[in-house]
Write a structure and sequence with these properties.
single chain; about 120 residues; alpha/beta; Rossmann fold; 5-stranded parallel sheet; 5 helices; about 40% helix; globular
Length: about 120
């Protein structure tokens, strides 16, 4: 199960459609809080996560998950070019980082790579 956390409904829908067309099962959330309320992450294989979200940011969600020892692969997406944020996310263990608009094929490839990487 690929979890998508993106507050923009159109982008969220497009990512869902893209990943489903690649044969992946997806679930979508509008916020980090909604994702956290969805239950244990044991059935989640990868997280496609927007950096800027209302209330809890993507980076805060990453810190929370990894701080609890959760090694769920995270692929960040953002519409705001900020190399400092990118470096922080990758240094903290993100599997990949994309700026919107991103190449659809590259995102699918990244998700497949994240699914195949050994978990810490």
């Amino acid at each position: 199960m690929i979890s998508i956390v993106e507050d923009d409904k159109e982008v969220r829908s497009a990512i869902c459609n893209l990943l489903e067309s690649a044969g992946l099962r997806v679930e979508a959330f509008e916020s980090a809080e909604e994702f956290l309320e969805s239950g244990p992450t044991a059935n989640k294989a990868c997280l496609v996560l927007d950096v800027r979200l209302p209330r809890m940011s993507g980076l805060e969600l990453q810190r929370s998950l990894y701080g609890q020892g959760n090694s769920l692969p995270i692929i960040f997406i953002t519409g705001h070019a900020d190399s400092t944020v990118r470096e922080e996310a990758l240094r903290a263990g993100a599997a990949d980082f994309f700026y919107k608009p991103f190449n659809a094929e590259a995102l699918v490839t990244s998700v497949h790579s994240a699914l195949n990487r050994p978990q810490a």
